[in-house]
Amino acid sequence: MPALGILLIAFGLRIYLLDNQSFAFDEGWTSYAIHHSWRDIWAVLAPDNHPPLYYLLVKALAELAGYGDFATRFLSVLCGTLTVAEIYVLGCCLGGRVAGLSGALFAATSPTLIYYAQEARMYSMLMAWGGLASCCLTRMADQPERRRWWIGYLLSITAALYTQYFALLLVVTHNVAALTWLVFQARRRRKWMGLLTRWALAQGTVLLLYLSWLPTALAQVRVGQGTWWRIPLPPAMILSDIWLFFILGPHRPTQPTWLNGQTAGVLLALVAALMFGWRKGGLGRRAFAWALLILPIAMVVWAGSRWPIYTDRYTLIAVPGLATLVGLGVAGVWHTPAGRRCRLGMLAGGLTLLAATIGPLNQLNAYYHQPAYWREDFRRAARYVMDTTDAGDVVIMLGAYQPLMQYYRGAATVVRFPQRGDSIQDEQEVITVLNGAISAHSQVRLVMYSWPTVDPQGLVEGMLRANCRLQGEHWQLETGQRPIKLLNLEGCIPLTSEPRQRLDARWDDQIALIAYRAVHFEPNMQAHLFLWWQTLRRPERNYNTFVHLLDAKGQLITQFDSLPLSDFYPMQAWPVGVPQRADAPLNIPADVDLNGAWLAVGVYDYASMTRLPVTLNGEPVGDFVRIPIHAEK
């Protein structure tokens, strides 16, 4: 009965306010994919970077229950509830009933697990398949002669690999655990060779079941790898982020320290698991629980510190391991005192469980009720666009097409960017597409989301601002971790390439500045110096650039120093030989005299604060290029 009660709590917390929040960007992609026919969905999924199983199952459910927010997310609710049940079973197998109940209660109220159980993405299903595979593996160790555990393991781990590629972390973890267990069996002179053969055959079967998808998988895992919006991170930073992510979830408007009132109880339970968890179930079982948590994290930290691939949600396969260890810690404390002092242990165990579960509850309440913790509100953005546009108007969706189209039902013409791929690189393509959609009489709404990543050069916004009248801006900042920006424009003239002044400045054989454009260089204005950079080869470092505005006497008026374009798109990620447009905004004071003023532009290494020497038209000119001000009004 207690287990059933915990499952009911888990289901209730996961279905509560299920469709209250708008679809986030990635959920919009799910909606976009499943709205295609069964024949066409394969062509849509092929360029994605995730396997197909989740999309196919959620589409099948949507065919029966509808394509609304509630129905599309409901599969994740079911998977999230199943994960809690699996943590109960796993805890019982590794540490007894108290461990199972404690781990399940922690998982039932976990903000992280609830968040992903309310998201129309594959991560809740990934944890469900992974938890089932771990349960089957544990039972295989106890009853290796039972075929059902082998079959269950093969099907569940294969399904996990067809759900999300980071299930491979669990495959590696299981192999390490199984081979270690077999080594101990050999030392005890048990019949281990037959088990090793069966295990090898099982892994080969998984490979055979996956073989038909393997070529597509190898192509898909390259999508987004080495992309410009991620960079390698220090291991300590990744570990701290994973710790907070596991306990508090992905949305943390303020970044807390790794040890605080919300995380201390979980740390206490893990310490208890380390000290006392072995008393109920033995050292080998405790080691397996720790492996489920530590090995996937270690692999992610190792990879994320070397390549630009770290994302917190890719470690979710290890969260059931955390919940199981919390359960083992509570059970260890619960059973430590013997005899007449057993009640003292029960009290201490109960307090440990209370501390681990009650700490994150404030975060859970914020997730439900505080907009700052919510997903980006594309539903509201779509409503605003529909209320302010009519037939004949044009809505340009920059990085926002998939989630907006879940809610947009307007009559205006819709144009999407990027037209292909993950980012906009071709200025001429932008001009062609916009000219084909916009007329002089059009009211234009530009809806922008994640524009530093999808349009790092600002080509779409820059083109529209240069050729249309800006009527106003509307920002949505109340929800989500990234804003949604809407521009209202009209009176557009036929778009042409942005005007610019040509020059030939080169920093070694690495970087060139090929053009510039100066706009609004007047007192009490925000001026903009647009710079067209180009890499001549892959730069040795991700260099910073500086733009200094100096008066006629060489005194600094204002400056702008940064990575060009954005932190999401450093120089080493630029395609070699492709011009990259960067904006350097400069706030000019009201009382400044700009007669004779000029601009100094240079490149430097931030780590050493060393400027690179530059040549202009083949002649050395020091460590900066001097640009006169001939600004557009």
Structural features:
alpha+beta; 6-stranded antiparallel β-sheet; 5-stranded mixed β-sheet; 23 helices; elongated
Characterise this structure.
- The protein has 633 residues and is of the alpha+beta class.
- The protein has 23 helices and 16 strands.
- It has a six-stranded antiparallel β-sheet, with no helix packed on it. Strands 2-1-3-5-4 form a five-stranded mixed β-sheet, with helices on both faces. Strands 9, 10, 12, 13 and 16 form a five-stranded antiparallel β-sheet that branches.
- Strand 12 and strand 13 form a beta hairpin.
- The mean pLDDT is 90.
Straight-line N-to-C gap? 75 Å
Helices and strands: which structural class? Answer: alpha+beta
- Strand-residue fraction? 15-25%
Tell me, briefly, the overall form.
elongated
Q: Give the oligomeric state of the chains in this entry, treating copies of one chain as homo and distinct chains as hetero.
A: single chain
What order do the strands of the largest sheet run in, or round the barrel if closed? 11-8-7-6-14-15
**Overall mean confidence score, pLDDT:** 90
Q: What level of helicity do the residues show?
A: 40-55%
Number of discrete helical segments: 23
The whole-angstrom Rg is: 28 Å
Number of strands: 16
Low-confidence stretches: none
Q: Tell me about the biggest sheet?
A: 6 strands, antiparallel
